[in-house]
Design brief:
Blueprint lengths: L2 H43 L3 H17 L3 H18 L2 H4 L2
């Protein structure tokens, strides 16, 4: 096998592996969002304000890990407002 053929195959394998890794990351993100959506729906259905706030914190963490700091901050502010309304000093003092 020629050097150029070997290099081409290695590059192809690398590109395919990178694509699979990217797809796996996207799948994990989608999975996290779906889990958070289910938790949020359950908290809303049960009129569980603390559950809603906790889910907002989870969403904020997901956005932060994706590098979307503005969206992360948005959800943290929503959570903080709920915790303040609940007078949850334990969480607010963290």
């Amino acid at each position: 096998m020629k050097q150029s053929e070997t290099t081409s195959k290695i590059v192809l394998i690398f590109v395919l592996a990178l694509g699979n890794f990217s797809f796996a990351q996207d799948s994990a993100r989608v999975s996290n969002v779906l889990k958070s959506a289910k938790k949020l729906q359950k908290a809303v259905d049960n009129n569980d304000a603390k559950g809603v706030a906790d889910t907002y914190v989870s969403l904020a963490n997901n956005y932060y890990n994706q590098g979307n700091y503005a969206k992360s901050e948005e959800y943290l502010i929503k959570a903080r407002n709920i915790y303040q309304n609940l007078n949850d000093k334990k969480i607010l003092n963290l």
